[in-house]
Amino acid sequence: MKLKQLLLSSLVLVSATAWADPTYRLFVTNEKSNTVSVIDSRTGILETTLEIGDRPRGIGLSPDQKTLYVALSEENAIAMVDVASLETIGKLQAGEDPETFDIHPNGNLYLSNEDDAKATVINPTTGKIIHEIKVGLEPEGVAVSPSGDTVLVTSESMNMVHIIDTSTHKIVANVLVAARPRGLAFNSDGSLAYVSSEIGNEVAIIDMTTHKLIKKVKIDLEKSKPMALVLSPDDKVIYMTTGRAAKVAVLDAQTLEIISTADVGKRVWGAVMSKDGSTLYTANGVSHSVSVVDTATSKTTMEIEVGKFPWGLALDD
Amino acid sequence: MTADELVHLDSATAILLATDSQHILSIAKSAQFAHVPVFNLISDDDALRAACVDNLLSITASNQMKKDAMAQMLKKNPESKAHAKGWHKDFRKFAASQLNIRFTKASGVIMDDDSWAGWAAVKLLSDTVARTQSMDADVMLNYLKNDIAFDGQKGAGATFRDTGQLRQLVLIIDNNKIVAEAPLRGVKGGLDSLGLKSCK
Question: Is the CB of A173 inside 8 Å of chain B's CB atoms?
Answer without folding.
Answer: no
